[in-house]
Amino acid sequence: MTTQAPAQTFSVPDKWQWFTESRYGLFIHWGPYAQFGRGEQVLFREHMNQAEYADAASAWNPERFDPELWADTARKAGFKYACFTTRHHDGYCMWDSAYTDYSSAKQAPKRDFVREYIEAFRKAGLRVGLYYSWIDWRLPAYFDGPEKDPEGWAKAKEYLHNQVKELLTNYGQIDHFFFDGVWPRNADDLGSVELLEEMRKLQPNILINNRLGYSEQHDGYRADGGIGAGDSDTLGDFGTPEHLIVVDRKRLWESCQVTTWRLWSHVFGERWRPADYLLDMLVECAEKGGAHGGNLLLNVGPTADGQFPPEFVERAEAIGRWLDVHGEAIYGSDGGAITEFITRGRQTTRGNNLYLIIRFWDGRPTLRLADLATRVKGVTLLTTGQTLGFAQQGDELVIDGLPQEAPSRLFPVIRVECEGPPEANAWGKQRLWEGDPHRVAEWARAQRGTSVYRDGQER
Ligand code: GLC
Q1: Beta strand extents in 34-114 (DSSP E only)
Q2: Overall pTM surpassing 0.90 (yes/no)
Q3: GO cellular-component terms in the record (predicted)?
Q4: pLDDT tens string 376-408
Q5: Which homologous superfamily does the CATH classification assign to the domain defined by 345-418?
Q6: Atom 5 of ligand 1 has which residue's CA nearest to it?
Q7: Residue 256 Cβ contacting ligand 1 at under 6 Å
Q8: What CATH topology corresponds to 14-329?
């Protein structure tokens, strides 16, 4: 009989506890591509002229970039860490790299944006992550590969390794590293396994994502090399389902999601997902994921002149205000979906508490939770701090005294304090399509009979 997805069985080392405590990170896709307002891959997607793009990128000078303002906004919005694009597929480097002059430090801005980002975010108390793309659309050797162009490939590979090591050497502690764009190479071409070892020497506490490519030489690393959804055996410390919220049962995971639609950097004329949609993704990540829950890495594409778009700030701050009140249901939560609760919203847990995150507020004074097997000690409407009445009979909990009007525009939360870690009975653990179908038959038979007639009686 299948019930809920089995809990993850691995344990999280102390040095990575911050990641599960955080739950919520900010992805920042920013570079010279923002000028075009058609996404971070505009160079390739529109098959632009490389030299003209390089001219525009080199002239790019975002004068309104204020990393402290970014960090302050991120902190208020409830993000606990961030991940910044140091170099996307266009090859333009956002730091002072010793290995190229195609960078913000050597071209128009004459600034090391990576350093400024790291210092400001760290000062605001956030953990820092770096995004780095394997792909560099400027380098033919990257695409020709080691067979066709061994010399060019050796140089390209050395360049990549040097840059990654440079990023992990010159900027103090880096908490999170997000490789991307491994196509069309694999882990053996790229020397991912060797590079990973060197990265760990430089940064013993770092968490490295899974986009490191497939390895034939290192058995067991059956990489997808791409979005990394599901229980894959790829290299890396955490899975990165992209535009998806999928549990990785073998390791930590972080779903990366846009606030808009598909593209990651600033887009002109974009439409924005509403705040409750974004918050629901965060809650879903926290709810899914068995023992350790999942994280949401929510994206922002700052404008070419260096600002977070107001549409983003408005939504992020609304979620931040919600987290100020309801954060205990998210940060450090232990996953949820304890009982079947889809008719009302989502659930998370933390220690002995069960959090009911209500999507549908129907105005009735009572809420009935079927199948909670753990004894309840107290119930609080977290949104207002109000203590709620309750009655528990067998495995049925009826909460009383709910206000008619929803107490908040975003999801209200009820905290159910239990005597031990909350658990459902067997029936409650099963979802619609799971479990013993005879249990369903018995439920129907016992309560109304067996026939198609209204009264269930056979004629
Ligand atoms: C995809 C996109 C890339 C983006 C990344 C974020 O790989 O191709 O542009 O940076 O997702 O996860």
Answers
A1: 81-87
A2: yes
A3: lysosome
A4: 999 999 999 999 999 999 999 999 999 999 999
A5: Golgi alpha-mannosidase II (2.60.40.1180)
A6: 180
A7: yes
A8: TIM Barrel (3.20.20)
